[in-house]
Amino acid sequence: MQTAIGDSFDLKGARPALISVAMDVANGRRFVMAPFQPPEEASTALWWPFDADPVTAKTSYPEISVLDAAGLSARFPWITPTGRLRVKIDKELVLADGGYFDDSGADTVLDLINALRISKDWHNFAKAGVQSTTPDDISEENCEEPAIQIVDNFHDQATWKPCVYPVFFIHLALAANEENPSQPTSASSVSQSFIFDPIRALLATRESRAEIALQRSDFDRCGTHMSGAECYSDPNGSFGFFRNDISPVKLSLPLGWYMSQSSFKSILDNSIPDALFDYHKTRREADNDLELLIFHFDPDLYKQGADPSIDDLFPSP
Fold first, then answer.
1. For residue 84, what are the β-bridge partners?
2. What is the pLDDT of residue 228?
3. 30 near 21, Cβ under 8 Å?
4. Residue 168 and residue 103: Cα distance in Å, rounded?
5. What single-letter DSSP state applies at residue 159?
């Protein structure tokens, strides 16, 4: 956690990249702290460190640690004060909780997806401005750097070559979804307050932005805003967007970084129950999106003569 942001991710390692999202108080935009930078044309936010050397990926000033970046992204309103970050020798920003702008994370994920689509080269993902090479140009003889080949549909056959890495996009979104029995059923029952309505409007806008971002992810991956792992517009398609709704109020989740074992178990039971991994014994068809996601992660199901096979478990369209 004390590692500098730029040193916290290795493409050849097994550790995932940790990305922290804050909001720039001065302009209200998303501010992303990450160990890599998408090309400017692929991003809808400001990514930092943004003036890294294109060869060494190092900045000319001290970076902050992964822990400090996480702390800047979690400045909860009225509880934690805003933070000040020196982004250049002569420039500082005041940052607030990333949830003000992006409490779903979906916009940041789409930035990464678009960056890989544009770069096509694994190293271009970290170094903007380097000439990209398409997979068709690469062979084992002239291979200098591995190239990215985007595979949108999990059902498409991927071609593995010595210098080409097929990449499948998977976005597992955990979204808050609360039942609201007090929601008014008619326009005449809506309360109104000249004092509090502006605040209510701001809070409602924040929540609706998250839902819009998630729907935009659905539209980008499946061509429709209707959520679902197997795209409604293409029953034979699986484009890697899996949305799972949880209920923070019902589960009594705390506004903090730590929670009790019972609360953590409640999240697991409501999101990925252990029973979902019993498909080798139960041999039943999947009846929810998460089971379908798990099937995609099990290559044994696709082998010739597998028992059970993916055909035994996959539901009919």
1. 94
2. 55
3. yes
4. 25
5. P
Contact by Cβ (8 Å): 92, 26: no
Radius of gyration of the chain (CA): 22
Cβ atoms of 45 and 111 closer than 8 Å: yes
Strands 30-33 and 147-151: unpaired
What number is the average pLDDT over the span 69-98?
87
* CA-angle at 247, arms to 172 and 226, nearest 5°: 50
Residue 27 neighbours by CB distance under 10 Å: 9
Q: What is the DSSP letter of 36?
A: S
Q: CA-CA distance, 70 to 84, in Å (whole number)?
A: 13
pLDDT at residue 31, as a whole number:
92
Q: How far is C-alpha 36 from the geometric centre of its chain's CA atoms? A: 15
| pLDDT reported for residue 21 | 93
Q: At which residue do the structure tokens 């949830």 appear? A: 99
pLDDT at 56: 47
Smallest CA-to-CA distance from 150 within 124, 121, 130 is with: 121
Distance (Å, rounded) from C-alpha 59 to C-alpha 53? 6
Give the model confidence (pLDDT) of 161-172 as tens digits. 777 778 888 888
Cα 175 to Cα 245: distance, rounded to the nearest angstrom: 5
pLDDT at site 140: 57
Buried-exposed string 94-127: b where 16+ CB fall within 10 A, e elsewhere: ebbbbbbbbbbbbbbbbbbbbbbebbbbebbbbb
| Interatomic CA distance for residues 222 and 280, integer angstroms | 29
pLDDT in tens, 177-198: 776 555 555 555 678 888 888 8
